[in-house]
Amino acid sequence: MTAIRTDRHENVIAGLIGQGMPVVVLAPHLGDAAASCGALLTYAVSRTPVTVVTFFTEGGQAPYARPARRYLRRVGARDAEAAYRWRRDEDRAALEPLGITCVHAGLTEALFRRRPANLSPSKLTHVYPFYLAHVTSGRIVAADAGLLGEVREIIHRVAGSGVNLVLAPLGLGGHVDRILVRTAAQSSGGPVAYYRDVPGGRRDPAAEAFIYRHDLVETRWPEPAEAKAELIRTYGSLTGQRLPGAGDPLAPEVFFSAARPAATASSAWWR
Length: 271
Hints:
This protein has 271 residues and is an alpha/beta fold. The chain has a single domain, classed as Rossmann fold (3-Layer(aba) Sandwich). Helix content is 37%, strand content 16%. The chain has ten helices and seven strands. Strands 3-2-1-4-5-7-6 form a seven-stranded mixed β-sheet, with helices on both faces. β4, α7 (176-186) and β5 form a beta-alpha-beta unit. α2 packs across α9. The longest helix is centred in the N-terminal third of the chain and has 16 residues, at 80-95. It is globular, with a radius of gyration of 18 Å. It starts with 11 loop residues before the first helix and ends in a 13-residue tail after the last strand.
């Protein structure tokens, strides 16, 4: 494959923020925006309105599939309701004091999603019963078709009017919630750029193929990571559970946008 193109002359995203374009970050999970875009968030909020929309902010009812049980043991929660209440509280406590608008969409995370009752009976009642084979497969199954529409509708409600800089996950690692949000954002009809997910693997051929297919240009965020480090420390669920061994969360943030942005924030910059 040809090397990913890098914008060496102009940071398109920083330029749009400098023009005052409102920023809307689409986060699959609680804490994803801080881990993947924290330096950008702390920079942008003093210059323009910033909204973080987190989609999958609920667990489910017992009995749980094996990956969900493993997750609950890891975070030391007695049940999904307690775990996600804690995570929602810490997300608001991290973002709202900065002046960031925090939207929790209330959808159920993939680890806990169950098949709709009207589907044909199956011994496997969960949509994604196994982690490697299903949750990180990169494939949205038929049972999630309606959910994809829900995510798209939420994006329209939050970012559909006016001109916004919408940042969606690139989908590194193939987690189905990341792919679902990316797919909904891409098909929403508005301008979208993509952030490199943290945590994420060193290399993801499927994500690279997406970049090439849509002719995206890589841009590294120039701001230092000190403010991001402070932001991440407010997330016990991030510092204690999710980031160790998953790459350096304070490495430069990376974004992918269209090769030919418009010159001003008053016109659609995605072509």
